[in-house]
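Input/output pair, single chain:
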Amino acid sequence: MAAPCRRMASRSLLQFLSCFSRTAVGNVGFRQFSSTSVCRATLMTQSVTERARSPWTLMAAVCLQRFPVISADCTPIEQQFRQMMRQMELEKSLLSDHELRLLEDAERMSRKQADDYDSDQDGDLGDQEIVLAQDLEDSWEQKLKSFQPTPRVTADADEDLTSLERCLADSLFLLAEQQVGGGKLWLLPQTRWQDGETLRQTAERALPAAGLKATFLGNAPCGVYKYKLPKAARTESTVGTKVFFFKAVLSDSGPPAAPDAPLLWAKKSELQRYLKPAYMMTVDRFILSL
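Output:
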């Protein structure tokens, strides 16, 4: 009799504990859900309020890069390696079709001089004049002398920072002179963000309308820079600016058009001449001189 009583007591105790645990877990889950919803709503309200009251102006800038048009000059060690590879290829390579033809022509000429030449060995050429490989080389040599390659260095264009044809072996970056406060500064092309558009769209609007077409490299900014306006230009609602940078590469340059502001194409080593040190430090983190 004692054993059945113990089983009933233990069973009722287990049922009571399981019911208590389910009730406790349900209450805790309800409290977590309720508190999370309240926190999210509060954070969203605060973010909207802070955005409306933020004294910082949002802007987007485009880092437009023109890739090198020609290959860069080889370094001394690259020249030595190239000469070594050419020598190895020359020593291990087989005879080309033109070199085999030169040997056949030499053999044919030797048979003619030895009066052991049979025209039937040359196929069905008949009386047709045979063009020797040496004749082809002479004609190729004449064409090579008349060929004038495009110069790799254009001194006039290299000195003109507004020309897109300068420094063809280097990467160039576009700079625009823009009004900041009461003065003008050289910056990456930028414009102010407007309601209803993404920062990527703002960066696309910042691209100067000078016949330039660019390919953007993503929808996320690659860097951000924050600066304050001069004290004379500050107000209670406007203290400074936050600039978000987007990278793009030049895909096409149509006929030049009159830009809205002065533009410069500068190499990475020349950027520090025009950009402020703090601004240059931020830009230097995401640009590559390829």
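The longest strand covers residues 240-253. The helical segments are 2-53, 76-92, 97-113, 133-146, 155-159, 199-206, 277-283.
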